[in-house]
Amino acid sequence: MIIDEIKQANVQAMKDKDALARAIYSVIMNKHLMATVDSRTNGKEVEDADMVRIIQKTIKELEEERDNYARVGNEEEVKNIEYQKSLIEKYLPQLLSEEEIKAIIMTLEDKTVPSVMRHFKTNYNGKCDMKVVSNVLKSL
């Protein structure tokens, strides 16, 4: 599972005395713990698809933080955030390209927006950016 790989990377970051890596791995592990507690109340387990969503959300938060630091001219923090982002991006599956998304849409019988979005959310959850799917669909 992804969380096991992140825990191993966290241990390695401790050994390497890499505070930036430890910080971002700790954030991911804490979010996983919170998701585990939430899911146990519903009688479910946290799966890799849930971890992908957690990592994607964390990356979006890092990008917002990076943009704020860039606006005030703090280049040191911008570099640190880019480093942290690169560390956790490798745990994400390869996202579908626009061409692949277009090919999938063309194979569908019902090309209405709700139907296409539902199809991608059900079958390609975590493997595509829904914003890209929407943009490709609008361009058809």
Explain briefly what this protein structure is.
The chain is an all-alpha fold and 140 residues long. Helix content is 77%, strand content 0%. It has helices at 2-16, 19-41, 48-71, 75-89, 98-107, 113-123, 130-139.
Question: How would you describe this structure in keywords?
Answer:
globular; mainly alpha; 140 residues; 7 helices; 77% helix; single chain
Which sequence of SSEs, written as H and E, runs from N to C?
A: HHHHHHH
User: Kindly, what is the distance between the CA atoms of the first and last residues, rounded to a whole number of angstroms?
Assistant: 37 Å
Tell me the fraction of residues in β-strands, as a range.
under 5%
Query: Are there runs of 5+ residues with pLDDT below 50, and where?
Result: none
Residue share in helix? over 70%
Number of strands: 0
Largest sheet: none
Tell me the structural class: mainly alpha
Name the shape in a single word: globular
DSSP summary: helix tally:
7
What's the Cα radius of gyration? 18 Å
Overall mean confidence score, pLDDT:
91
**Oligomeric state of the chains present here:** single chain
